[in-house]
């Protein structure tokens, strides 16, 4: 599996790739491939979030759970899908909230969030791979230990990051974050099953930019062209 991470991440995460759990995880993935299991995203995109958003440029973390498990959906960025793929319901609700917060936000024609990632939004899934059509199939294989360490490392070595934790799964990660150094915003998950329980109206996108600008950082342009 190619470790397609931007160089700053390779430096701060070097020790993780040498640990036993990561070797077991890589062996698990290799076995899956040898058994002709179809895994998403493709190998070159597994660490896509880390390629788009260098460690020292992270302003925001949006935490997802699993990559999408449908054809051509996952490309290594949480909640994002590749251009030409129908926009999933949770992402549609994210766009609806953006429309409510910003009157000039136009509903996008695609769900590729790469432009957010390039501005400093780390779109991180707790698990970075999944078997096709089998949601959650690669959970508890080691990915969570790795991505927990990513969150901890950002918390320890950086200041002024906004962590957007939507839904109970993401909110369980609050213990990894030093809230004296960072802003944690929590709301219901944007899924159609829960969006009306507190995601709609959360104003997280405006609050995020207000916090960044107050701390001397440029806010995110949430528009997708």
Q: Any overview of this molecule?
A:
By secondary structure, the chain is α/β, with parallel strands linked by helices. It is built from 9 helices and 6 strands. The chain has a 4-stranded parallel sheet with strand order 3-2-5-6. It has a two-stranded antiparallel ribbon with strand order 1-4. The radius of gyration is 17 Å and the shape is globular. The protein starts with 6 loop residues before the first helix and ends in an 11-residue tail after the last helix. The mean pLDDT is 96.
Q: Main attributes?
A:
single chain, alpha/beta, 225 residues, globular, two-stranded antiparallel ribbon
The count of strands amounts to: 6
- Helix count, DSSP H or I runs of 4 or more residues: 9
Strand % is 5-15%
* Unreliable segments of 5+ consecutive residues: none
Mean pLDDT: 96
Shape descriptor: globular
